[in-house]
Write a structure and sequence with these properties.
This is Nuclear transport factor 2 family protein. This protein is an alpha+beta fold. The chain has 3 helices and 8 strands.
């Protein structure tokens, strides 16, 4: 097996671990997936956040205000050049609203986000996240009269 193939598999595992940690609301594991250097994140609709503190606070805020979230990744493309890897993918997101008074999960909402995740290989050979950028995708829908419109 070639080294490039092994690197791609390792990056894919690191990328999957990122989304699984968010789904579980596991901030500790998520923190271990990021570099201990200058990092950045752009969540859909947010300004760029830089530095580990800001990045981790943003995820803590998202996790604290999200009852349920699940990612179905599609169109995953991975490129590795040296010690840098870029993953582009579509995040098909299913998330739950605030819990109802009876404890049931609130309404589920779907959304699409195109994401770019940049990883760096660290000294122990593992891949750590350097930057995440997510942009919402506008999808075509139909009006009540049957005509198409663009919406978020």
């Amino acid at each position: 097996m070639s080294r490039a193939r092994t690197d791609i598999e390792a990056v894919e595992e690191a990328n999957t671990a990122l989304y699984e940690a968010v789904e579980r609301g596991d901030l500790e594991t998520l923190g271990g997936l990021w570099l201990d250097a200058e990092v950045s994140v752009v969540h859909p609709g947010w300004p760029v956040l830089t530095g580990r503190g800001e990045v981790m606070r943003s995820y803590a805020l998202i996790m604290a205000n999200t009852e349920y979230i699940q990612f179905f990744l599609t169109n995953v493309e991975i490129s590795v050049i040296g010690d840098t890897a870029v993953v582009s993918c579509t995040e098909n997101i299913l998330s739950g609203g605030q819990a109802e008074e009876d404890g049931d999960l609130g309404p589920l909402v779907g959304g699409l986000v195109v994401a770019t995740n940049v990883f760096r290989r660290v000294e122990d050979g593992s891949w750590k996240l350097w930057s995440h950028h997510g942009s919402p995708v506008l999808v075509e829908g139909e009006d009540d009269d049957g005509s198409e419109e663009l919406g978020a």
